[in-house]
What we know:
Layout: H1 3-12, E1 18-21, H2 23-36, E2 40-45, H3 52-60, E3 64-67, H4 70-78, E4 86-88, H5 95-103, E5 108-111, H6 114-123, E6 128-132, E7 140-142, H7 152-164, E8 168-173, E9 178-180, H8 184-202, E10 209-211, H9 227-242, E11 248-251, H10 255-258, E12 262-272, E13 281-285, E14 305-306, E15 314-320, E16 329-339, E17 347-350, E18 372-375
Parallel strand pairs: 1-18, 2-3, 2-11, 3-4, 5-6, 6-8, 8-10, 10-11, 13-15
Antiparallel strand pairs: 1-12, 7-9, 12-13, 12-17, 14-17, 15-16
Helix pairs in contact: 2-3, 7-8, 8-9
Amino acid sequence: MTPKIARFLAQHQPATPCLVLDVDRVEENFRTLRKTLPLARIYYAVKANPAPQVLERLVGLSSYFDAASIEEVTFCLDAGARPEAISFGNTIKKVGAIREAYRRGVRMFAFDSREELEKLAEHAPGARVYCRILVENEGADWPLSRKFGTTIENARELMLEAGEMGLDPYGLSFHVGSQQTTTRAYEAAIGKVAMLFTDLSDAGVNLRMINLGGGFPTRYRDDVPEIDQFGSAIMSAMTEHFGNNLPEMVIEPGRFIVGDAGLVSAEVVLVSQRNRADPVRWVYLDIGRFGGLAETEGESIKYRIATPHDGSATGPVAIAGPTCDGADILYEKSNYRLPTALRSGDRVELLSTGAYVTTYASTRFNGFAPLSEYYL
């Protein structure tokens, strides 16, 4: 919690649940990453938090943007981003979305299949394209490897064909998974993609770029490596495989930029010991998986929770949301402990929730209003 957020909560006590985010912290994180990887162009992953206040601040910092939909392309343009600073990074795009993005000046598109490549050739002629490679996501709390990416062999064929289709075969990309907690994942992926990069270059393809995706973590309940450790590992691996002839480097951070810039302020709706023989109390909050905390599915992302009774005696808890859906359980197996003094009506804060919360929030499931947002 930044001092600015603490002051806002103390002075205004906004109705819960709400997100409160410090845009200055967004800028600080962006500058830290730029200093850590100065040779890489930063394409902010808009899906992490597309609030105009965030995008406008990043436009002012000369950020680039990774958009997952035509709607996100529009968000960026409305915030003042240049179309040439936008990459349409989703490998699954409607024809209408490709046409509209191209009409509005976007010229950089991702793909991972022949069918998508053919759509780009027809509806975004001459565009720069990059192929997403399937890599291991071991170490990621939120893996992304099953739905996206293609094999090295298939990528080679597709990149050779891209030029024949009138497209510009610009580069290759990968994603090691969101909230990646090890540097090894980047090192292994760079080694894998570098071999294909060299092979295609030797075959006469004018490759110029490697997109290392996102995955840079935010600290939640458990410690994670510092960002400079990721930077050192990435640059060491790039130098090992490319020497002094480094290609253009692109990174697509989302969580690292906005994650620890915000928190969710929530209210305890009920504390119940459902089974007197079981010491576990059930703590129900006024926000749950359907209110924006979707990344607690499988108890993957484990948020830190601050209460007004911190420092007092604690006991084991299960934590759930307010809806009538039985799947609306945040944590039951992750050994959460909260103060035994916690009561209905207490305000609690879920820390480092600036990423992937507002955009996951449902629209009035059970009638609950969408999460309110405050940008400071």
